[in-house]
């Protein structure tokens, strides 16, 4: 049987919360995919059920109950069909863990950079203080220097539920 893993959600460097939703198309031995989330130090594991007779859409989720359990905010989500073979096919997706970026993380909103904006100015407008670190970390896939942003760039502004 040909094994296929086509993961549509999350995409690389998506900003996720303490419940990570996973969706795509797959076939798997005995219809099960294992799900692991790790920062290289700590790991959470779960599974999702998919079709075993041909490519099927699937949805799954993994809950991270202790949002302080990871040391880093860049995590790796691994989906694998290893229920019948330890070395079965797998897909690894880098994701950004919102609760490590901003305490009380509850999602994000887009912000289009305007002429004259700086990350400090955006943080002051969005959070009422000059701490731009959550914005920089939430956009680490497109920003390499907090002093270099461009008008027209669309940034993710992490929001909290607190």
Please name the CATH topology of the largest domain: Immunoglobulin-like
* Structural class based on helices, strands and sheet pairing: mainly beta
- The tally of structural domains comes to 2
Write the H/E string, N to C.
EEEEEEEEHEHHE
Description:
Helix content is 12%, strand content 41%. The protein has 2 domains: 5-99, Immunoglobulins (Immunoglobulin-like, Sandwich), CATH 2.60.40; 102-160, Membrane-bound Lytic Murein Transglycosylase D, Chain A (Roll). By secondary structure, the chain is mainly beta. The chain starts with a strand and ends with a strand. The protein has a 5-stranded mixed β-sheet with strand order 2-8-7-4-5. Strands 1-3-6 form a 3-stranded antiparallel β-sheet, with no helix packed on it. A hairpin with a 4-residue loop joins strand 4 and strand 5 (43-49).
Which keywords apply here?
elongated; mainly beta; 3 helices; Membrane-bound Lytic Murein Transglycosylase D, Chain A; 12% helix; 10 strands; Immunoglobulin-like; 2 domains; 162 residues; 5-stranded mixed beta sheet; 3-stranded antiparallel beta sheet
